[in-house]
Amino acid sequence: MIELRTPAEIEKMRVAGIFVGEVLTELASQAAVGVNLLKLDAIAHDMIRTRGAESCYIDYHPSFGASPFGKVLCTSVNDAVLHGLPHDYRLQGGDMLTLDFAASVDGWVSDSALTVIVGTPRPQDARLIDTTTRALSAGIAAAQPGGRLGDISAAIGAVALADGYTVNTEFGGHGVGRTMHGDPHVPNNGRAGRGLHLDPGLVIAIEPWFLETTNKIVTDRDGWTLRSADGSRGAHMEHTVAITADGPLVLSARG
Fold first, then answer.
1. Spatial distance between the Cα atoms of 93 and 207, rounded to a whole number of angstroms
2. Domains in the chain and their CATH numbers?
3. Residue 37 and residue 18: Cα distance in Å, rounded?
4. Closest CA relative to residue 59, chosen from 205, 179, 183, 203
5. Which one of 3, 59, 157, 226 has the fewest beta carbons within 10 angstroms of its own beta carbon?
6. First-to-last CA distance in the chain?
C-alpha cells in the first residue's frame, strides 16, 4: 500500500535522514586500507546504540534472503553491488566499497548508500561512480509533483545508457516510511510519462546501481550478497527523497 506523508511526518523522516547521513559520512571516512568490514559494521552498530535508533537490517529476512541479515550495514566490495553481508575481510588498495545503511529514528526510516574507492582509484571505477552519481541526481531532479514514476526511472536509465552501461531492473528504489521497503518499486530504467502519479507526500528511496560490463547478478554463497555475473565491478548510490509541492526534498543529504 502506498501512503502519503504529511509535512510534519516528512520533517520527522528528515531527522532519521540526518542520522543516516552522519553514519555514512563517518563510515566513508573510516574506510581505508587494512580496515575490516566487521569493524565498519561495529562502528555503525555503536552509532545506532548511542543515538537510540533501531537497525532496519539486523532482523531483516525477506523472501530473497537466506536468513535474517544479522548485521546493521551492507558492505559490498568490488564485484558485489547489493546486500553485501559484512564478513572478515580487510580492505585493500583499489577496492570499490559500497556502504548501504538504513535506520529508524522515533519510528521513521531513512535509507541511503554510496560507493567509495579505497586508496588509488582505477579510471574505470571512477567513471562508473561518476555515472551512478549523476544518475541519482537525474532521478531526484525528475521527482517532481505532478509527474510520473516513469519520469524518475527514465532519467536514471538515460544517464546509464548514454555512458554505455546496461541496467538491471530487478532491484531498484522503493517506498520508505515506517518500514525500510514498501511500495512503490522504482526501477532504474523505464518510460517517462508512465506509472504512478508523483503526489506531494510520497517518500521514496531512489537508488541507481550499475555494473561495469553486465546487468546480470548472482547470489553469493552467503545467501545475501549480490554480485555481477561476470566479475565486473559495481557502484550504487541512494537517497531517501520526499515529493513536496515545491519539488523533491532529499531527506538523507550528507553534510
1. 26
2. 7-250 (3.90.230.10)
3. 23
4. 179
5. 59
6. 32
